[in-house]
Design brief:
Blueprint: H1 4-25, H2 28-39, H3 43-48, H4 51-64, E1 80-85, H5 89-103, E2 108-113, H6 117-120, H7 126-129, H8 137-144, E3 150-154, E4 166-171, E5 179-183, E6 197-199, H9 203-212, E7 217-219, H10 225-233, E8 239-243, H11 244-250, E9 256-259, E10 274-279, H12 285-292, H13 295-311, E11 319-326, E12 329-337, E13 344-351, H14 357-370, H15 373-378
Parallel strand pairs: 1-2, 1-3, 6-7, 6-8
Antiparallel strand pairs: 3-10, 4-10, 5-8, 5-9, 11-12, 12-13
Helix pairs in contact: 1-2, 1-4, 2-4, 13-14
């Protein structure tokens, strides 16, 4: 058990962490009140908090403070806004990345935790749930009814077409877009023994993995990144496949974490980037764009999403599309596969100029459609 001095020191460290988070996430007029309420928490409770729990406490206390002063402010005045986010560790980390950039423009953010269909339904695979907006629909509802002014999504979760009353205000700098092999016992995908259990929730990953190694057993796995890693460490799986971007943002990994090359395992459209969604008539959208938009990432994402739209592929379909810059050219690779990996269509398109990145995506999609991609996507898996 910690002695009293240790408790006081740990509580002080937590309060300092809270002070920093308050400064970037709480409207200026509420910061003093918020920190005052946090300082009243029992020392033992403060001392026991990890960084994530401390941030959650800040958000909980800040959201409970009456917004009397706010009634004189327009909802999107630039003084303070609300971000809708899923409540997973990764989603909140991503939301805070955007909030910190927005704070540099003088706009504070509070975070509204939203539970989505994908979070709520954990006993079925994504394909079995049968929705193309598993992690999006409830966040858009928060934008529609005014509970939030912007939402942060993993770009790969967004359907290829969003509702007409919504807009993508900005695309962030792209993290590592690759998928990664993760295992505690095996050094690489190639070294897995026959019939090893590989966990993945993605039809796209399953199809491409099965094409490379049809001798392995591919099993659905659900849960957040840390939950999936724990299941693997507990022996439920010999290996799992996760997005490098999520691992990097959370600062976690498996003992053996080996990225696949993007041409070997083609990522999902948008993978690695964050999409900031607002209402179509949002006044805060220009500020968000100025604060976080990355032009090169945006061009690549526009290319990928145009291809996905033309293929009529949802975010859960066995479709991989990845655009990147090579020299001065925009190059996009696409793959459409059967779920069992026995049929894999692969094409590439490029353009030396990027004035119209969507046209490069359409060229790719048309090449895949000409080879029978539509029939492949329509086939029951």
């Amino acid at each position: 058990m910690k002695n009293e001095a240790d408790v006081v020191a740990a509580a002080a460290q937590t309060l300092e962490r809270m002070r920093v988070y308050v400064s970037v996430s709480v409207p200026a007029q509420h910061r003093a009140r918020t920190f005052s309420e946090l300082a009243k928490l029992p020392l033992e409770e403060l001392a026991s908090m990890n960084p994530v729990e401390a941030e959650h406490a800040v958000e909980r206390v800040a959201s409970a403070i009456p917004a009397r002063e706010d009634s004189a402010l327009p909802q999107e005045s630039g003084a303070a806004v609300v971000c809708a986010s899923r409540a997973s560790a990764l989603a909140l980390t991503q939301a805070r990345l955007v909030a910190s950039r927005l704070a540099q423009k003088g706009v504070a953010t509070t975070i509204l935790h939203v539970t989505t269909t994908g979070d709520r339904v954990q006993d079925r695979s994504f394909a079995a749930i049968g929705s193309q907006s598993l992690f999006v629909k409830e966040l858009e509802l928060a934008l529609r009814d005014g509970r939030a002014q912007y939402a942060v999504h993993s770009c790969k979760d967004l359907p290829s077409t969003i509702p007409p009353d919504m807009r993508i205000a900005a695309i962030t700098h792209r993290e590592d877009p690759r998928d990664a092999f993760c295992s505690e016992r095996h050094a690489s995908f190639a070294s897995l023994p026959p019939h090893a259990r590989v966990g993945t929730s993605s039809m796209r990953r399953r199809a491409q993995l099965a094409a490379m190694r049809p001798d392995l057993d591919y099993v659905d796995i659900r849960g957040n990144v840390d939950t999936r890693l724990r299941k693997m460490r507990d022996g439920e799986f010999d290996a799992i496949v996760l997005a490098c971007a999520g691992l990097h943002r959370l600062g976690i990994s498996a003992k053996h974490t080996v990225p696949f090359d993007v041409t070997q395992m083609v990522p999902a459209a948008g993978q690695g980037a964050l999409a900031i969604e607002t209402a179509a008539d949002s006044l805060v959208a220009p500020v968000l764009r100025e604060a976080v938009n990355d032009e090169r990432a945006e061009q690549a994402i526009l290319c990928e999403r145009a291809a996905l739209r033309a293929l009529r592929g949802g975010c859960q379909a066995p479709v991989g599309i990845h655009a990147r810059f090579e020299g001065g050219a925009l190059v996009v690779t696409g793959v459409v596969a059967s779920e069992d990996g026995t049929t894999v269509l692969r094409e590439e398109a490029s353009a030396a100029h990027t004035a119209d990145p969507e046209s490069v995506g359409l060229t790719l999609a048309n090449a895949l459609l000409a080879r029978g991609a539509e029939r492949l996507l329509a086939a029951p898996n």
